[in-house]
Amino acid sequence: MNALEYRKKENVKLDISLHNESRTARAFRTKKDEKRYWFLLISLIALGLLFSYGLLVYNNPVPIDSPSFIPVVERRIGAVVAMLIAAVCHSLSTVAFQSITNNRIITPSLLGFESLYSAIHTSTMFLFGASAMVSFSGIGPFFLQVSLMVLMSLLLYGWLLSGKYGNLQLVLLVGIIIGTGLNTVSVFMRKLLAPSEFDLLQTRLIGSINNADAEYFPIVIPMVTAVALLLFVFSKKLNILSLGKDVSITFGVKYQSNIIYALVLVAVLMSISTAVVGPLTFFGFLVAILSYQAAPTYDHRYIFPMALAIGFFVLTAAYFFMYHVINLQAVSVFIELFGGILFLIVILRKRSL
User: Fold this and answer.
1) Which whole-number Å values give the CA distances from 149 to 22, 167, 216, in the listed order?
2) Which residue has the higher pLDDT, 170 or 229?
């Protein structure tokens, strides 16, 4: 009888523990985490807007009451819009890519977008000269670059992810091989260029907001907005896909088709960003790692806004301090430097990929 009563008491304790208020299926484990998330998100958005305002009006050589003040601000607005486009593309694509690969170290640049971008511009300079390189701008060349990068990704996914033995690791491996091959060809062609041509080419190959052309914005902004909304709507399935193939299939998710769908959205974002501002290899990794620390949740409906806010804040703050405080213009170099250092720190701490 005593043993029976003891078992009943243990069952009651177990039932209480299972229905404890701390055990919940909500996005955040505790109310404290949720409050911290919203505080950080609002603070980062406010700081990003503050630095954006500083970039627009601070240190403006034209007096505020001058008729030329507004045109100067309008030119600066183009740079802020380019920062927002880069932040959206890199933050959302990197978080989504790391979720579907179930790896928080690798980035979409492994698929060879930046190598293809470099190869397109290097071959243009090598084959047609500096005059063709200068005129290689506008809507036509922009669509050509984006189309080639998206087409390469579609061929890669359609070939390697279809069939019985298709898997994501094979896609990454082939992407690395293609990227290495394109980089090798690009380096060979650059060594044969004249010094003046090489200098002109380098300005295109280093990612910079100055590379952005406001002529692209009426086309780029709707495209980026549409893809970002599609990724946000896809958030619930990303939550499941991040658990791995076996768990996704168990939950009834069509793993293969959803992976291809997510990769296509990632490819479009990365292609647009690379074509607009140039290669930014470690920026997305930097933003993604910081967003995971700032958003203690598995739910991509909350991770995506945090990643976007951090990405915009990092770009606006970096450009403001570099241009107006330190008086240096190599902003992307420093962002890539800090991103690369953070990448090495994560690798050394995890001791694996």
Assistant:
1) 47, 21, 17
2) 229
